[in-house]
Amino acid sequence: MHLNGGEVPKDYKTYTGKKVSIIISGIVVLFLLLILSISVGAVNIPFYDVFQTIFFQHESDQWYAIIWNIRLPQALTGIVAGAGLAVAGVAMQSILRNPLGSPYTLGISNAAAFGAAFSVIILGTGTMHSTGSDAIVLNNPYVTTIMAFIFCLIATAIILMISKVRGSSPEVMVLAGVAIGSLFTAGTMFLQYFADDNQLAAVVFWSFGDVSRADWGELTLMAIVTILCSAYFIYNMWNYNAIDAGDETAKGLGVNVERIRLVGMVVSSFLSAIIVSFLGVIGFVGLVCPHITRRIIGDDNRFLIPGTIVAGGILLLASDTVARLILAPHVLPVAILTAFMGAPVFIYLLIKGYAR
Fold first, then answer.
1. Residue 258, CB half-sphere, CA atoms under 13 Å: how many?
2. DSSP per-residue codes, 204-245
3. Staple partner for 308: which of 32, 90, 152, 342, CB 3.0–4.6 Å?
4. Residue 69: which residues within 8 A CB-CB, separation 6 or more?
């Protein structure tokens, strides 16, 4: 951009104004979708009553209990998890300069699944029982979550150690992530081979990512981590723009590329680990949302990062709403829908190619 007589050109203001308008429109859509998601279900609640119960006062104790104890935390979890996974994905793609960078493709989700399997089968946290509604419940979900989180961090540490030894190039990080993901997948299969029926069912149950598992406390923790990590990525948006232009160009502009790349990977991996360890494996959100947003709003990280955060919230909340309704009264795990959606995007990228 060149200043016109010391003033920002009108065309540039129009150009950036359109991108800001798109992001604001996305926030409005996200709010309307939140009200819709809370409104529909086994008991339909009118939009006005949903709005009044959340922001003012309630007239029905039944609707108050449904909204505040079930639907509102589930919907907000979908928004927070979608935003967190999406911003982790866009950061990884920018840092690694690779369109396939995401928590799922770098093996972090595979490590979480192995940690859960290790907890259930080896530590014995997978003895299950069925409730009156035949829901399967892990008898010690906290240990399972902690083990999933620990193995997420182990996977991240291994990737960073390999990249440190071989130099923190994007190619090394991506290949290390693919290898680590395959290794943890093989480990999960090994454990499942020796598991009994109950343990195997518990592992499979955990691997179906589901936003309804989180309570208000877990939602609060995920929200705090997502906000802090997103703030870090937004703070470094100019550095990511410089890296997008090439390592040599970024270094010429004074950017410490190696440090930005390593710290960015740690932050994005930590964010992914927090979400996956609480909710299970939810694939493709971190891969799909950056690509969708990039095609709408462009590559400029000043707009791409906040736009992807909004898109992630919309995508996972919409997917969870459809998952609750498509086979009602049965509830489909949201990870199944995101997987159905992500595979065609992978195929599209392979056929169409990728142009930044």
1. 7
2. HHHHS--GGG--HHHHHHHHHHHHHHHHHHHHTHHHHHHHHT
3. 90
4. none
Dmax (CA) for the chain in angstroms is: 75
pLDDT at 31: 92
The owner of tokens 């090994």 is 190
pLDDT above 70 covers a percentage of the chain that reads: 87
Q: What is the rounded distance in angstroms from the CA atom of residue 111 to the CA atom of residue 124?
A: 19
Q: Which residue has the tokens 């951009």?
A: 1
User: pTM for the whole thing?
Assistant: 0.84
Tell me, what's the pLDDT at 134?
45
DSSP label of 194: T
Average pLDDT over all residues of the chain: 80
28 C-beta neighbours (distance < 10 Å), count: 10
Total Cβ atoms within 10 A of residue 14: 9
Taking a C-beta distance cutoff of 8 angstroms, is the pair 191, 121 a contact?
yes
Mention every residue, 6+ apart, whose C-beta is less than 8 A from residue 318.
33
Cβ(288)–Cβ(318) under 8 Å? Answer: no
**pLDDT at residue 6, as a whole number:** 64
What are the tens digits of pLDDT across the range 295-338? Answer: 888 888 899 999 999 999 998 998 888 888 877 777 777 878 88
CB-CB contact of 69 with 61 (8 Å)? no
Average pLDDT for 121-137: 59
* Nearest to 292, CA basis, from 90, 141, 106: 90
**61-83 burial, b for 16+ CB within 10 Å, e for fewer?**
eebeebbeeebbbbbbbbbbbbb
> Token pair for residue 118?
């290790």
Q: Are 87 and 275 in contact (CB under 8 A)?
A: no
Output the six-digit token pair for 216: 């208000």
| Burial label, 221 (beta-carbon count in 10 A; 0-12, 13-18, 19+) | middle
